[in-house]
Amino acid sequence: MDDAPSAELRVSDTYAETPALQGRDLAEDLHAGEFPGLVRFLLLNGASWSEAQDAAQDAFTQMCRPGARIRHPKAWLRKVAWRSYIRQQVRQEDACAEIPEPVANWQTPAHAAELGVEERRVVELLLRLPAKQRAVLAWTLDGFTTRESAEAMGTTPEAARQNLSRARATLKRQLRLEGSDVAGEEES
């Protein structure tokens, strides 16, 4: 698998058409604004605090490679960071084993300061979802379409939609919100 994913994701982000910024300049310009959101994205994918920070920093480091030309940096960063997090999990476990299920860890100061009781409950429920459902939901919560998340995860848009639908249904059931909107889903 190629470590540097293509930048073909069609995501509207503020840096999508800035040819003047490339590589290290782009990474430095984006770091302050995108790093916290990238870490949150990885936390929603089940990463621990340290795993999320490591994978996010790895993505910014890869962005600094000489000659890096990235058309959609927000999507590119998430794709590279997500792959880095997955590689961390595979290295930690037997190559044939499943990625371990994540557990909510509220020991970090950021979690304590940012999340209320109800938000913690929602995150704990998110972390109980199967990995593919959790991943596509994290991409959706970060503003990406199912087609974009499918491309980033290396799956079909139909599989992404199905996993997103299952994730929403599970969360609705667990939160007892059968008649309401979860993660942007509209009831018909």
Q: How would you describe this structure to a colleague?
A:
- With 188 residues, the protein is an all-alpha fold.
- The chain contains 8 helices and no strands.
- Helix 1 runs antiparallel to helix 2, helix 1 packs across helix 3 and helix 2 packs across helix 3.
- The longest helix has 22 residues, at 23-44.
- It is globular and about 50 Å long.
- The chain starts with 22 loop residues before the first helix and ends in a 13-residue tail after the last helix.
Summarize the structure.
The protein is mainly α and 188 residues long.
Task: Name a few traits of the molecule.
disordered N terminus, single chain, 188 residues, globular, mainly alpha
